[in-house]
Amino acid sequence: MKHVVASFALGLIALSGSVQAQNRAICYNCPPEWADWGTQLKTIQMRLGIQIPPDNKNSGQSITAMIAEKANPVADVVYLGGIASDQAREAGIITPYKPKNWDKIPADLKDPQGNWFTIHSGTLGLFINKAALGKKPVPQSWSDLLKPEYKGLVGYLDPTSAAVGQVGVMAVNLALGGTYENITPGINFFKALVKNQAIVPKQTSYSRVISGEIPILIDYDFNAYRGQYTDKAPVVFVIPKEGTVVFPYVMALVKNSPNQENGKKVLDFVLSDESQQMWGNAYLRPVFAEKLSAAAKAKFLPDSEYERAKPVDLKKLAAAQNMIIERYKNEAK
């Protein structure tokens, strides 16, 4: 009898594990604090019955983990800064999947074979806690950040692993007269910024700006607007006078993932009307521009300010990625 009970109990445990697997998907680089992924994860669970645990990796850390796990993948889907999309494809860690609404995505914002696709984009600039600045003026340009009055007050994510850090180097570089092939102006800027005692975290640092621990962060508009309008913090977003870039974020299906069907459902969802409207309400620009509501758009800076923000060339940026990492590591860090 004991053997029967034990076998029955083991069967229940196995069944429970099977049900859990059926209702689960793993997304690398889906931090609840970033781009309002928290709301998306909750909605995916409500709509699809699929639970996705939050994950705080950045793009570089996600790719490193996926390469290490290639023989036995853990993740089902991955969210990456666009600069990392071709790197993931070339490493053989993602696999083609064309989700619903694929055909509506602009050609330059997806891989033609379906290896990755854009879900939304952000504009890089200055996310500033005015209260933490005290009586210091709100900086209006990249060059302002090098002034002695901002010593120890400026932060940016580490360009050796975070996509936003690498985009920051290139955004400044292009604004100061560099090119995708010549990044010396950008490297020189960050070298000077390090000397001005910059703060260089590796992970998403939204809460550190809201608290005033990092008064100025090189970051995206969507985080600043969230702080200003949702969390009612004393923060503003500034598009630097010299100009900046608009940067896409992409998703992909992990090759040989353990819960591949769930992964596909998640990728279908992030391009759905509901999800695209949610990204817009989180102050991102949805890949389907018409899904940005008038109410959300009214909270953005005027279009005249955004004229200084140019779409990044993903292919050229990806080609420059290793150069950005190595030169930053060797010259600026």
From TrEMBL:
Q: Which GO terms describe its cellular component?
A: outer membrane-bounded periplasmic space
Query: Organism's domain of life?
Result: Bacteria
GO MF annotation list: polyamine binding; thiamine binding; thiamine pyrophosphate binding
Q: Which GO terms describe its biological process?
A: polyamine transport; thiamine transport
Which UniProt key words apply to this protein? Signal
Would you indicate the residue range of the signal peptide? 1-21
User: What protein name applies here?
Assistant: ABC transporter substrate-binding protein
Q: Organism source for this protein?
A: Undibacterium jejuense
